Amino acid sequence: MFDDYYLEFMEHGDVPELPAINQGLMQLRSELDLPVVATNDSHYVLKEAAHLQDIVICIHTNTNINDAKRMRMEESSYYLKSPEEMMALYPHMPEAVTNTQVVADMCEVEFDFTKQRLPEYAVPEGTTATEFLAKLCWDGFKTLLPDADQTYVERLKYELEVIKQTKFDNYFLVVWDISKFVRLRDIFFAVRGSAAASLVLYCLGVTDVDPMPYTLVFERFLNLERKEMPDIDMDFQDDRREEVINYCIDKYGREHVAQIITFGTMGAKGVLRDVGRALAMPYGDVDQVARMIPTKLGITLNEAKELNPEFQQAIDTDEAVKKLVETAEGLEGLIRHSSTHAAAVVISEEPLTDIVPLQRPSKNDENSMFTTTQYAMDPVAALGLLKMDFLGLVNLTVLAKARDLIAENQGITFNLNDIPLDDSNTYDLLARGETVGVFQMEGGGMTRNLKELKPTSLGDVAAMIALYRPGPMEHIGTFIDAKHGRTAPSYPHPALEEILEETYGVIVYQDQVLHLFRTFAGYSLGEADIVRKAMGKKIPAIMAQEKEKFLSGGTKLGFDRELAEQIFTLIEPFAGYAFNKAHSISYGLITYWTAYLKANYPAEYMVALLNAYMGNPERTVSAVVDCQRMNIPVKLPNINTGGTDFTIAKQEDGSPVIVFGMAAIKGVGVGAIAPILEAREKEGPFESFEQMCRVADMSGLKKNNLESLIKAGAFDDFGDRGSLLSVTERILSLAHSEAGLRESDQTSMFDLFGDSVPTPLANITLPEGKTSERETEEWERELLGLSLSGVNHLANVLSSAGSDTIVFKNDIGPHQAGKKVSIVGQVSTVIQRFTRKNKPFQIATVSLMDGTIDVFVWEDKMEATKGLWEEGKLVAVAGTIRVRDDEISMSCQDAEEYSPEIIEKAASTNSNEANETPVIESSQPETNGTGTPQPDIKPPTENGVNGSNGNGGSGGVPSLAHSKLAVPQRLNLRIVESDSVADDQLMLDDIKRLLLEFVGEDEVSLEIAAQGQVFRLEWSMVKVDASEDLTVRLQDLLGDSGDVTVESLAN
Q1: Is 189 in contact with 236 (CB distance < 8 Å)?
Q2: Which of 900, 879, 897, 898 is nearest to 889 (CA)?
Q3: Residue 305: inside a domain, yes or no?
Q4: Minimal CA–CA distance to 854: which of 886, 829, 821, 817?
Q5: How distant is the alpha carbon of residue 174 from its chain centre?
Q6: Does residue 661 belong to any structural domain of this protein?
Q7: Statement to judge: residues 572 and 649 lie in one domain
Q8: Contact 54, 44 (CB under 8 A)
Q9: Residues paired with 843 in a beta bridge
Q10: Do the strands 358-359 and 372-373 form a parallel or antiparallel pair, or are they unpaired?
Q11: pTM
């Protein structure tokens, strides 16, 4: 009757209900004659791990071992017990233990890892998937490539044959069908990874990249030697990704489509912090230990001990740290949580429940509304299921929204593929480093390299994306110098030039690695890809095996073994970190598109960007500041001119202005504001709160919403913010009573008279008063992320600041540590502190356009700047950048109260100086005796220390032009001419580069001794900081061929 139904028995002393439950089960066994089985509730393998389980529970329940009421297992019996231990628990019922084997024998699960479970695309009757795919490709070929030569024809035939032999025709048709749906629905999308190397996918309209001009290697995507299912990863605008998944569900059935789970594990730093909390250790102590773990992807605690002796020493000398680390080692690598993969989707031929376990998404999982597999990506792929990446990419959303705004505001319509790839505005923007909101190009390091690179092609952009990663990053300088002709690329063999010419002799791409294997060792591209992948794992046995194979292949092709050794040594490090070229080109295209729209349609692009960043205050602030940088004002939210989103309005002169979106105000949602804006659209701008209460549905507007809107400036048209805040109860009461009248269809008694008598409005009397600027700015910082009033005020005041003066915090970076800069800002707070030697100093927080910086005023500067550090004062400060614990501050060397007139005068003086030419105090020609030309030292042109501060100007960062404290000096260089013109030129170039590292206010004089005469050059346009560091480095550079002195120019 009950077939294989068993009664399960457990024995755990800390569960008081178990004896009664077991007694009841014994009675059932007797009454129904049911078989029994004994089990142990196993939560860990070894008994000694019980304390680790206690820690795990503390981590998951957010408590610690000192909490007596915490959830815990009171005894250590929850481990995997041996048969002998289990038999000892059930001497009266030995069959319960032996039956565990009986149950195990009845369970049989087999996985078929040889079968492909691809969905079948419904092709037209009478044709096969192979035939239909070929037809689609040749149709697309004729449309997209009408003038293509025979190499294109052969490439397409070859790819179709490989796809046929690997039996992936259906896969390509499924992807084509999805891309067709996406294009029909006007959803912006792109393909990343190696898929862009396929001409088939280009002809199908799946990719926007023709692989031929970029020499993309198809074998990196799919080859006969490695018959793995290729990855065709697709990015969609993130606000419409759900539509694509729903299409797949509608097309193939809900039981055939699911998202894929992902597991988060406990890494070295994270597990230390988790365990520290569970052990109730002080946060500071745990943080100090966690900071000792070197920053390295996938690092383990054991590796950290080897890499950082300080970490090992802390373990050896501190018992608390030792316990922390030993406990953490027991949990390191364990799964901490599960979630839905941000991109991965599986589509199957048969119902997924027949192949993989499934689960419903958790309520807190923001990545999924759909069923999720309980197997992660690798097991799903191993089972032959079609795994695709559908990633939501915010940059594509920005592009789509910007395109729509351009059409709405300017009447210009276009598709992304219409954008020309040779637009000078775009490359100029990238060369200036104006990369806020530009895909893959944000961040100080990337921006600096981009400004040095000055890209002029999509290939340059793609190369920078590939190079800006740990490993290849060290070759960026070589790449840039070679591009600009400062150094010549080096090729150990002429055959290398053809492969590496486009990247100036630097191995950047995996495709180049494959070509090197083929050219120098005779590998097929498919074989080379397998080797590249294997070498990337850095397994010594594999490396040795492949090296011998490479050398042998090179010898057979007639290459010298020594050369083959040299080439393999060149390839070896790059095999692991060279980048997928197809991916670089694909992402480079998105980079270019975003830069193009920003350069040519800045207002529309920045509005789209701000709307995409809504809910991310830090990114919003960054974008707002960038708007100010581009002279696009961003105005406060306004109930009469703004919207829920950021919008574009026109100023009186027709130029654009951006109005801050009200839904971006902290504490204000779309639901609270949308009905009010609907009433505004119908009735026109509101004249007062009274009128707004009369005509708008304010039922969704709570008191906290209203207060946030008032504080943020949305109702500035109606009165002072402080005054409005004092009557919020009255406003809401009036809104409620007016709503009641509207619902009863009798707005007021005046309606009885029709339109002949206007309906008077209830009166809200505002108390007199004016909110202080400081309080207004504090409210805006709290609710908007920055003080727009303050930024706009500073923007007006500082608009006359010279181009050498920094007014943006973003223009100051860690790379400027120890360098002199000049800033202008507004003092916000001042505190006095004392050093360990009990000497006083001040810390003045100075507000810049996009943030604040702490200025340290040491004792020797306090008297000279006395009375300057007062809240609200505008100050001009010259000083040295300090970096400590990633925090950037400044040491004051000189400071004065700021006024635009002073800066204008300084700018005028600098302008006149810049037009001067070197004065040569000699009647001799301007060359030395052997023809060495005078050095061409120009005003600096780099960001921050050496140039453009992002406001459109160029030049170094001088001390204040009106400084009272700086002592003028002159740096004198004396160089003796050598016998080599080339050596002299190199020496002068090195001097020039070194001088540009020390921009300041001191004059420079150069004397060249040649043929018994001395040529003296005064460079009034070049100013340096004649510090001891500079003089020492110059003397080291000159050696015996010259000397360096510094003289004071003080009267």
Answers
A1: yes
A2: 879
A3: no
A4: 829
A5: 31
A6: yes
A7: no
A8: no
A9: 831, 856
A10: antiparallel
A11: 0.74
